[in-house]
Every structure is written in C-alpha cells, then in structure tokens.
Amino acid sequence: AQSVTQLDSHVSVSEGTPVLLRCNYSSSYSPSLFWYVQHPNKGLQLLLKYTSAATLVKGINGFEAEFKKSETSFHLTKPSAHMSDAAEYFCVVSDRRYNNNDMRFGAGTRLTVKP
Amino acid sequence: EAQVTQNPRYLITVTGKKLTVTCSQNMNHEYMSWYRQDPGLGLRQIYYSMNVEVTDKGDVPEGYKVSRKEKRNFPLILESPSPNQTSLYFCASSLIGGEQFFGPGTRLTVL
Asked: What is the per-residue pLDDT across B13-29, written as a single tens digit (0 to 9) for each?
C-alpha cells in the first residue's frame, strides 16, 4: 500500500524568505509524486509532478521539488515566498502500476506568509 | 475552456433527504473520481470510474452512490444523507494515467 506523510500541518514564513514543505512517501513500487495547491475557496491546482524522469522537478510559480528515493522524500521548495503563496498544499503519491489513478493524498500543509 | 464543473457549489440539507451533486467535464476524459476533504485528513477517494458504465469503490464509499451513463458526467448521489457526510466534495477527471483536473468543490452541510 502507498501512503504520504506531510511532516508539518502548518508552516509560517515571512515574505521573501525560503519555503520548505516536507513530504515523505511510502510505496512498494516506483511511484509518481505530485504537489497540488489549494487556495481558499478554490479547487486544487497541480504545481508539479514527478513521473520517473529528472529527479529535480520544476513547477509553476517558482516552486520545485526533488525526488530522493534513498530518503523516500519529495519536499517542496521555493527560494522566496510571496504573499500569494499562502494556501494549503497537498503531497500526493500514486502507483504507476495503476496508471497513476490510485492517488493517495497527504493531510495537507497550510502555508502562511507574513508581510 | 477545459474544465470540471460541479453543482451545486454550496448545499445545506437535512438528514435523510436524498440529494445529487453533479459533475461534468468537457475534456473527453475517461477517468473520473469523487473525493471528500475533511480537516486533517486530506482528500479521500469515494468512488471512481475508468469509463462509461465502469465504476468502483474508493476508500470511503459507504453512504454514496455514483453512475456513469455518459462520458462527461459523473453524479454523486447521497440516498439518505447523515451529518457525518458534512464535508467538502471534489470531482476530478483525467486521461488514464494523466494529471487529474479538479472541480471547484461542493460544500455540503447535513443538519
């Protein structure tokens, strides 16, 4: 069975400082990994995805994540936070044996950005 | 515009009164799915469909029904809603093996 653990339920940063949202995964097979963002009262938007190509994945809005198999991690980073980054972020793992359609969501990390 | 739409966006109802939440996509996706989002639990899958007339249970199917008579539509049915089904519901669609696109969500309150 596959699962995801987001290590922080809430992260608070100041505008202009780096962002780190941590995610560890468990998967019996080669996983695909995703980060989604949910702004208040909005649906989910895909930030980036890893599907076995380059281990450093660049996404939208300056976010990136690195797949580290030895650490079973897929942490999300951004060099400089912007006020508009305040949202809830979900790490997701899926099993490529099932065509990525069996997605398992983490509990979410709420990012607050202070002026 | 490629999108997944859900209706209604907000619904307050009472225990036992049957309701349907509609979901429609215009991207010709084979795969559609329903999730519920609860604080501290992330999104959990209720039901999914790999194609027309093909549906299967997700992790939390109890109390829900779905149907997939047309490719574009995947309604979620609560035959007898209960307060523990108060939640935020998302519909999603994708090509098989592709990125899932999510609808805007339906906030349901069952009194």
From this structure: 999 999 999 999 999 99
What counts of helices (H) and strands (E) characterise chain B?
0, 11
Q: Which amino acid is at A38?
A: Q
**Which DSSP letter does residue B79 get?**
S
Minimum-distance CB partner of B31 among A45, A49, A101: A101
Interval B46-69: pLDDT, tens:
999 989 999 999 989 999 999 999
Name residues whose C-beta falls within 8 Å of residue B60's C-beta, 6 or more positions apart in sequence: B36, B44, B45, B46
| Residues in chain A within 8 Å Cβ distance of B100 | 46, 101, 103
| Gap from A5 CA to chain B (nearest CA, Å) | 11
Put simply, the chain A residues between 42 and 81 with a CB less than 8 A from any chain B CB are 42-46, 49
Contact across the interface for B43 and A107, Cβ inside 8 Å: no
Which of A34, A99, A107 has the CB atom closest to B96's CB atom? A99
Give residue A9's pLDDT band: very low, low, confident or very high (50, 70, 90): very high
Per residue in B70-98, is it b (16+ CB within 10 Å) or e — as a string?
Answer: eebebbbebeebeeebbbbbbbbbbbeee
- A62: phi then psi, degrees, rounded to nearest 5: 80, 5
Name the pLDDT band for A96 (thresholds 50, 70, 90).
low
Is residue A32 very low, low, confident or very high in pLDDT (cuts 50, 70, 90)? confident
